[in-house]
Design a protein that fits this description.
Helix content: 40-55%
Distance between the termini: 21 Å
Strand order of the largest sheet: 3-2-1-4-7
CATH architecture of the largest domain: 2-Layer Sandwich
Order of helices and strands: EEHEHEEEHEHEEEHHHHHEHEH
CATH superfamily of the largest domain: ATPase, nucleotide binding domain
Largest sheet: 5 strands, mixed
Strand content: 15-25%
Number of strands: 12
Radius of gyration: 20 Å
Number of helices: 11
Shape: globular
CATH topology of the largest domain: Nucleotidyltransferase, domain 5
Length: about 325
């Protein structure tokens, strides 16, 4: 049985999936699937060893016929080299594609996770039937990927779609990239949790519901915990989430004015924050964009597996290119 291998190097987790060819086209089922969460003191070499071991287990020691790979950071698409990770040390200029091909004896294609998720949603998910869309992931960080005229648009140096580092508030807090008021700094789960922790340490009388949810262990606060607290009526949690949604809506409205796609697809853990969160995003995006600019904003249909299904699409495209050459 021929198998395709799909890998997703995420900010907090690694996910691997194997599909049988061509069964997935009808059923979209995984032949084998596994996800593991990463430790706080994570490093690139640990991630690579863990992912290789995971993939071999799922493949049952059989080489795949092609591999698609999603990586949570900037990637040189043409060479398959990871430029860096903004969250995990050791990834600087690592030739991930070359390493995978040497290990698994099959062709591989590596791309940025948001680009890969955009491809997955366009081919299998919420973007089916749309000629133009932008996928935005709001999780540990914030990234974006474009589909224009039915094809991925990566830019001259594979850096298109970095919406997380567009500035929405020039007077806002400083981002890890060095600029102030980036979308990622205001909207990502990691930074929202950090802001909540700072406020709670400085104001011991605030955030009763948040404190209760984490048993007083403020370091355990996450974007998911903030969402839970907001749904239970915690004012501080909602204030942080509302700012996140405003920043995201502002960035979407500006992107809509600039490129004019039909659709924005939003994925990642933070997007599970509830109806109020989505209402602020949509309202702000409409207020920011021109009245003549029309678009939809939808949740990712593939959920957390959008990058993994995009990796399947990358592997499929590799096989099609190989078939065209023979």
């Amino acid at each position: 049985m021929d198998k395709l291998l799909a890998l997703d190097f995420g900010g907090t987790k690694l996910t691997a999936g194997v599909i049988a060819v061509p069964d997935h086209r009808q059923q979209r089922d995984w032949h084998a699937y596994r996800r593991v969460f990463l430790p706080p003191d994570d490093h690139a070499h640990y991630e690579i060893r863990t992912m290789f071991s995971l993939a071999k287990e799922l493949l049952d020691n059989q080489d795949p016929i092609a591999m698609g790979v999603s990586f949570g950071g900037p990637v040189d698409y043409l060479s398959g080299t990871v430029r860096l990770s903004h969250h995990v040390p050791g990834w600087e200029n690592l030739p991930l594609c070359e390493m995978l091909e040497a290990e698994f004896h099959a062709p591989a294609q590596v791309d940025n996770d948001a680009n890969v998720a955009a491809i997955g949603e366009h081919r299998y998910g919420a973007g089916k039937g749309y000629a133009s869309l932008m996928y935005i992931t709001i999780s540990t960080g914030v990234g974006g990927g474009w589909i224009l005229d039915g094809k991925p648009w990566r830019g001259v140096e594979s850096m298109a779609g970095e919406i997380g580092h567009t500035v929405v508030d020039p007077k806002g807090p400083r981002c890890l990239c060095g600029k102030k008021g980036c979308l990622e700094r205001l909207a990502s789960g990691r930074y929202m949790a950090q802001d909540a922790q700072i406020i709670l340490k400085e104001q011991p009388d605030e955030g009763g519901i948040l404190r209760q949810l984490v048993g007083g262990h403020l370091d355990a606060i996450s974007g998911e915990i903030l969402s839970q607290a907001a749904s239970q009526g915690e004012p501080l949690a909602w204030k942080i989430l509302q700012r996140s949604a405003w920043a995201l809506g502002t960035a979407i409205g500006n992107a809509a004015n600039l490129i004019n796609p039909q659709l924005f697809v939003l994925g990642g853990g933070v997007t599970k924050a509830g109806v109020r969160y989505w209402d602020v995003i949509r309202t702000t995006a409409e207020e920011t964009s021109l009245p003549e600019v029309h678009f939809e904003i939808l949740p990712a249909a593939l959920g957390d597996d959008a990058p993994l299904w995009g990796a399947v699409a990358l592997a499929e495209d590799l096989l099609e290119r190989k078939s065209d050459k023979t």
